[in-house]
Design goal:
Layout: E1 5-10, E2 22-26, H1 52-63, H2 76-89, H3 93-111, H4 132-150, H5 155-194, H6 199-205, H7 228-239, H8 249-259, H9 272-276
Antiparallel strand pairs: 1-2
Helix pairs in contact: 1-3, 4-5
Length: 278
C-alpha cells in the first residue's frame, strides 16, 4: 500500500478526541510515489506438496530463459553457478533480481493455483444513526475551529471565536451521543417485540459467537464417520443403549418408583410484582 500513498497531511477537522485525523490519497497509477515495491508483491498462491517436484522442473525451464547462454546449459546446478557468477560481475543487481523474481512468479502461476477472492466489503459495519444532521453540525464545528485557529492579531475576537467553537463542539458531541442512544433503543424495541431471545439477548449474554458445526468423530473401532447423519447416530447409540430385557432387583425398584403417581402439592404461583422484577 505504501507505493500508492500520496499527499498525506494532518487534518484540522474536528475528531472529538485528543488526536487529529491523518488524511492521504491512494493512487492506482504507477510511478507516482518514490516508495516502489515489486509489482508481484501481493501475489498469493496455494502451495501444495504434491506439486513441488513439478515446480522445480518448471522453475528450471524458466531460469533457462535468463539470457542467451542459459538456453544451452543443462542441469540446475550448472545454471545456478552461471547465474551466480553473472550477478557478481554485473553492476545492476536490481535487474538481475527482477529477472529471478519474474521466473519464480511465472513458475508459481504455471504450477500452483490462486486462492479464491473473498468479498469482505459485503460485511462492512454500517452506522444506522448517522444522517445529514450530524454531517451539517460537523461542518459547522470545523468552520468554527478554522476561524478560531486563523485569528492571530485580535485577542478579543480570538477568545470569542474560541468560545463559539467550544460550544459548537459540545453541542455536536451531545447530539451524537443522543443519536447513538436513540438508535440503540429503537433497535432493542423492534427486536424484542418480535422475539425476546433475539440478537439483543445474545449480545447482552455474550452468545454471539459462531457455533462450531459437528463434522466427524472416531468410532470405538478407530474408523471415522463420513457424514453428519452417521455422527449423530454414533453419538445416540453410545449414549442411549438398547434395552436388552434383563432386569435386576434395582431395575425393578426404579421402574416401580417411576410408575407411581406423584401426590406433592403444587408450587405457589408467582405474584405480578415477582414477574415484573425478574
Amino acid at each position: 500500500m505504501l507505493k500508492h500513498v500520496l499527499d498525506w497531511e494532518i487534518s484540522e477537522e474536528e475528531s472529538l478526541a485528543d488526536h487529529n485525523y491523518i488524511k492521504f490519497k491512494l493512487s492506482t497509477k504507477r510511478g507516482n510515489n518514490k516508495f516502489k515495491t515489486a509489482k508481484y508483491s501481493n501475489a498469493k498462491y496455494v502451495v501444495r506438496e504434491d506439486k513441488l517436484h513439478l515446480f522445480d522442473n518448471m522453475l528450471l525451464q524458466e531460469m533457462q530463459k535468463y539470457d542467451i547462454v542459459t538456453k544451452n546449459i543443462v542441469g540446475a546446478g550448472a545454471i545456478d553457478s552461471y547465474i551466480s557468477n553473472e550477478i557478481t560481475k554485473r553492476v545492476d543487481i536490481k535487474q538481475n533480481i527482477g529477472r529471478i523474481e519474474e521466473a519464480i512468479i511465472s513458475t508459481c502461476g504455471r504450477t500452483f493455483g490462486r486462492p479464491k477472492n473473498t468479498n469482505n466489503n459485503s460485511k462492512k459495519n454500517s452506522v444506522p444513526w448517522w444522517n445529514t444532521h450530524p454531517t451539517v453540525m460537523r461542518k459547522k464545528v470545523n468552520a468554527n475551529r478554522r476561524l478560531y485557529h486563523r485569528t492571530k492579531n485580535d485577542e478579543d475576537l480570538r477568545e470569542w471565536r474560541k468560545a463559539t467553537y467550544k460550544e459548537a463542539k459540545r453541542y455536536y458531541q451531545a447530539e451524537i451521543n443522543k443519536a447513538k442512544l436513540n438508535s440503540w433503543k429503537e433497535y432493542c424495541n423492534v427486536a424484542a417485540a418480535v422475539n425476546p431471545w433475539s440478537q439483543v439477548y445474545k449480545i447482552a449474554t455474550g452468545k454471539t459467537k459462531e457455533v462450531n458445526k459437528m463434522t466427524t468423530i472416531n468410532r470405538p473401532d478407530g474408523r471415522e464417520t463420513t457424514s453428519l447423519q452417521e455422527t449423530i447416530n454414533e453419538i445416540l447409540d453410545y449414549l442411549y443403549k438398547e434395552d436388552g430385557g434383563e432386569e435386576n432387583p434395582n431395575h425393578k425398584t426404579i421402574r416401580k418408583a417411576v410408575e407411581e403417581p406423584i401426590h406433592t402439592e403444587d408450587d405457589v404461583q408467582f405474584t405480578p410484582d415477582e414477574i415484573k422484577h425478574k
